[in-house]
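Case study: Lipoprotein signal peptidase.
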Amino acid sequence: MPSTVSTTNDPNQRPPMRRPLRWLWLAVAVIVLDLLTKYMASHFLNYAQPVEVLPFFNLTLLHNPGAAFSFLASHPGWQRWFFATVAVGASIGLTIWLSRLKADEKLLAVALPLIIGGALGNLYDRLVHGYVVDFLSFHAAGWYYPAFNVADIGITLGAVGLIWESIVGDRRRKKAALQQRD
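Here is what the predicted structure looks like once written out:
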């Protein structure tokens, strides 16, 4: 008869994180900072007129009806609703994932809300304005990186955290499991 007692040495039996949804404060912080900075950019900058801050960095108010790098920006408007649906779906999915984290998945507890906050910050723009407000513009030697905003920073940092966790976290867990077997 198989034993019904679970062992703590089984890496699949890691304890769940206590109150993982408390990390959603990071999403709220990204949304507030994003909307505040977009409001300021929209009110203090003239559209498409760069304001040099550093030799490689400008504040430049731009409106992006597409996605990252103005992907699908030239289409007639359906992309607004498509990206809004993606943002809502991703936010729901990532919140469910966040609610199921294990106690040792702290990096994921930070990464997921950063992405959620960024997605919801840009979602607000899409629904209210029909475009995303971008204003951070880096450049060098005549080459300009596409303008972006605080929501995009949250999404990018969150994605880097997910990638890092998928590489380093898996290795760490496998190594811990091997050490527990020995």
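For the exam, be able to explain this: Residues 20-180 form one domain.
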